């Protein structure tokens, strides 16, 4: 009997070992990096994690997950990229243009999925919107600027001078400025820009627009979004309304935004990562653009910034921020 028990124990040990080996084989690793932490980019990160969990990849079980923010520093972004590439994960998710550029510069083999990048072609992440045939794919937060300007007109009907604070060194922002410089004259408007190469420059850049603009439009520039409260203060003090392109900024004091739900964008990115974890090559997956748009309005912020939102605009919003 004793010998039989030992035999059974040996069989059981082999079975446990086999199960453990199968578990190890199924475990995948995903490394995520963002250029900075702010609500929109944090929502992308969380959306990626949600999509992975929904597909059965759960942290601590079948998924090894790691996340690092570059805290707005491109040098740190490059260091994180090299570290992650050395870890050889099954996929790297790079959130926002500077982090995506850093990761793609660091590897030609590890699968890279970019997210929250306005124009991946202009940023030289991919050669075109077709499958890259290399190790890169991703999801863009590209917005139709004509619809953004339609919202500006609804918020400030008599606006003629559109202000924009942006980081000239951020590719996605430079693209938006170039497109607005072509679009606004056709509408009888002019664009007035103010450079903010660092987050600490946002307040002074915004103040330089006082007396020169009727409204300030903010794109998803990471320096601006990470320091949005300083922009809001200028808007309130000078009675210049702020119209944003990301809905999270409305909760922080923008008057309105017709933009992407960044949690949804993260989930869309996560589903793309799942395809790669299941064997698809990133170079065979066409880059995508988020198509789900939402209108958020903040009547309280509008009042503080010297405008009143129409009942029609408020009633058409997906969310009215109190």
TrEMBL record:
Signal peptide: 1-24
Source domain of life: Bacteria
Coiled coil: none
Alphabetical UniProt keywords: Signal
UniProt-recorded name of the protein: ABC transporter substrate-binding protein
Species of provenance: Comamonas guangdongensis
Organism taxonomic ancestry: Bacteria, Pseudomonadati, Pseudomonadota, Betaproteobacteria, Burkholderiales
């Amino acid at each position: 009997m004793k010998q039989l028990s030992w035999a059974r124990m040996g069989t059981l040990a082999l079975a446990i070992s086999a199960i453990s080996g199968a578990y190890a084989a199924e475990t995948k690793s995903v490394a995520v990096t963002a250029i900075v932490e702010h609500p929109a980019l944090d929502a992308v990160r969380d959306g990626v994690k949600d999509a992975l969990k929904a597909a059965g990849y759960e942290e601590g079980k079948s998924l090894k997950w790691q996340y690092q923010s570059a805290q707005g520093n491109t040098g740190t972004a490059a260091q994180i990229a090299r570290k992650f590439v050395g870890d050889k994960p099954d996929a790297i998710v790079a959130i926002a243009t500077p982090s995506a550029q850093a990761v793609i510069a660091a590897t030609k083999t590890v699968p890279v999925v970019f997210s929250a990048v306005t124009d991946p072609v202009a940023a030289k992440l991919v050669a075109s919107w077709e499958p890259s045939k290399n190790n890169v794919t991703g999801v863009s937060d590209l917005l139709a600027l004509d619809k953004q300007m339609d919202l500006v007109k609804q918020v400030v009907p008599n606006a003629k001078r559109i202000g924009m604070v942006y980081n000239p060194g951020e590719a996605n922002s430079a693209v938006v400025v170039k497109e607005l410089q072509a679009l606004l004259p056709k509408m009888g408007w002019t664009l007035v820009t103010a450079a903010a190469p660092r987050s600490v420059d946002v307040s002074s850049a915004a103040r330089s627009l006082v007396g020169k603009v009727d409204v300030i439009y903010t794109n998803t520039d990471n320096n601006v979004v990470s320091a949005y409260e300083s922009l809001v203060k200028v808007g309130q003090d000078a009675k210049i309304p702020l119209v944003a392109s990301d809905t999270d900024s409305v909760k922080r004091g923008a008057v309105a935004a017709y933009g992407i739900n960044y949690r949804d964008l993260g989930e869309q990115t996560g589903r793309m990562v799942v395809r790669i974890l299941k064997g698809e090559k990133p170079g065979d997956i066409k880059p995508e653009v988020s198509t789900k748009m939402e209108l958020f309005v903040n009547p309280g912020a509008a009042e503080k910034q010297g405008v009143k939102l129409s009942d029609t605009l408020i009633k058409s919003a997906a969310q009215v921020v109190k």
